[in-house]
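Minutes, project huddle
Topic: does the predicted pose make sense with threonylcarbamoyladenylate bound?
PN asked that the exact inputs be recorded in the minutes so nobody has to dig through chat later. Recorded below.
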Amino acid sequence: MDTSYFKVDKNVDNLSTYPQIIEAADRLVKNEVVAFPTETVYGLGGNAKSDAAVRKIFAAKGRPSDNPLIIHISELQQIKEFVVEVPQTAELLMEKFWPGPLTIIFQKKAGVLSELATAGLSTVAIRMPEHPVALALIQASGLPIAAPSANRSGRPSPTTAEHVWEDLNGKVSAIVDGGSTGIGVESTVLDCTGDIPQILRPGGVTKEQLEAEIGLVKVDPALASQDKAPKSPGMKYTHYAPDAPLYLVKGSREYIQQLIFEKKREGLKVGVLTTVENRDYYESDIVQVCGQRSRLETVASGLYDALRSFNKSDVNIIFSEAFVHEGVGEAIMNRLLKAAGHKVITEN
Ligand code: TXA
Ligand code: MG
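Predicted holo structure (tokens), as shared on screen:
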């Protein structure tokens, strides 16, 4: 398949009247799949009401079919069509955080969306992205848009159109390039179907921010352990991993440097994933900076690009610094743990 590449400037007015957006929306209406930017990561969109479109999403990504998709909307009123009810906590959160990086799980109204999009579950995940290109495209299509991150399954999520091109060129109808995404980690997935809302995936909206609005929020216990099955089907899969094995190191930079020297003595080519603060400290074959430790949002924003960059070198092993489990650090550590396949080295 020839993949079209549409470049758009996200800052112009009336984006939904732009020819590239209209063309991309037209492909969505024809049940083709189109990659587009959101404020978190690029998504691979398709008509959420069409089994044919949703099948194309799963095929292009090589995604397991038991992993449901997030339904993206551009207007609040759309959700009435496919949820049974909007709990009061969800209502408050939607008002505060939509559009934005918060996905909410609702009880699903049967028979409206493609069963494949929700992997046959009785619930549905919905979000309204805060990106002018995403909103314009959804609006122009007039459809609810099912969209997972636009990477091949298992790879780091794409934060630029080039990342999408690397993974999906030839596999999708079009890529809409609206520049780099801002937040860099995916939306927070929050289950609002129970008594107390529960975070199933940490992301762009922090637990602290949610609790400031609605009080107590639980976190799926499976996120902290490898033994329990996560409530969000997607969280059980290996994800974000570079080609070379990555070890997450909870320790000082001196300790990380020792680990690097040890591996270099064994003849390995070693990479280190670090921050602006420590970039000049390390002696390693590849030093990859993901952001500034003192400003965690820059780490979130640069993390996936840094992880992808290791694949352009022939490193044999990668050590990554660790971050605090606070604020967006929670999402960063969740992604790094997955990228490491839970291989953690702790300094005594
Ligand atoms: O920021 C984001 O959320 C990006 C952009 C493109 O919007 N999308 C994204 O989609 O990260 P994806 O498919 O890569 O991750 C969706 C996650 C998966 O872990 C999936 O299992 C979970 O949401 N999910 C979807 N529907 C669910 C449901 N009904 N119950 C529990 N988890 C659900
Ligand atoms: Mg994903």
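Observations noted during the meeting:
- The chain is about 30% helix and 20% strand.
- Residues 33 and 172 are 6 Å apart (CA to CA).
No decisions taken; revisit at the next huddle.
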